[in-house]
Write a structure and sequence with these properties.
The protein is an alpha+beta fold and 171 residues long. The protein has one domain: Secreted effector protein pipB2 fold, CATH 3.30.2450. It is 38% helix and 27% strand. It contains five helices and eight strands; from the N terminus they run E-H-E-E-E-H-E-E-E-H-E-H-H. Helix 2 runs antiparallel to helix 4. The protein starts with 9 loop residues before the first strand and ends with a helix.
Amino acid sequence: MTSPDQHTNVEMKFHYDQQYREQVSKGNPDRWIDMSLSAIGEDIYGGSRGVVTGSACIIVLDLLDSIEGLRSNDRGIITFDDGPSWLSIAKCDESTVEIAACHTLKGAKSPKNRLDISQTIVVTQQAWEEAVLELSRKFYGKVTDINPHIRNDEIIEQIREKINTLTGSGE
């Protein structure tokens, strides 16, 4: 078995295309966006597996909620593509979490209901939290750079507040 120290690399990325940038410049940040995710060098979404899509702000809020969930031992579930893809995040033990790309909601809620094609990777909780916070901060920075007035958008304010709460910062 691999030690948890070897499970520290989680990378998440939004792919901001021109159409998304145009929508943000018009004041619409919660538009569909492509996302890729890899952990310990394996593509979960993106690369050879193809990206997933979803409403950008909802994805960010769900990812941030997954941190809160892990801290209280709850499973986090992120819905992509309006439902044919789900990402399940659950504690394995005090320091590691299981990330599972699932093809059914039942499988996202319970490992015993997963299809054989569901991909599962174990990473440290710290690595997961750092990757989520990095993606969230970059997203907030990107959309507010494209359209500074968007800082006052209710959902963008929710994202900023959640980041600040999770990091203990008062920015």
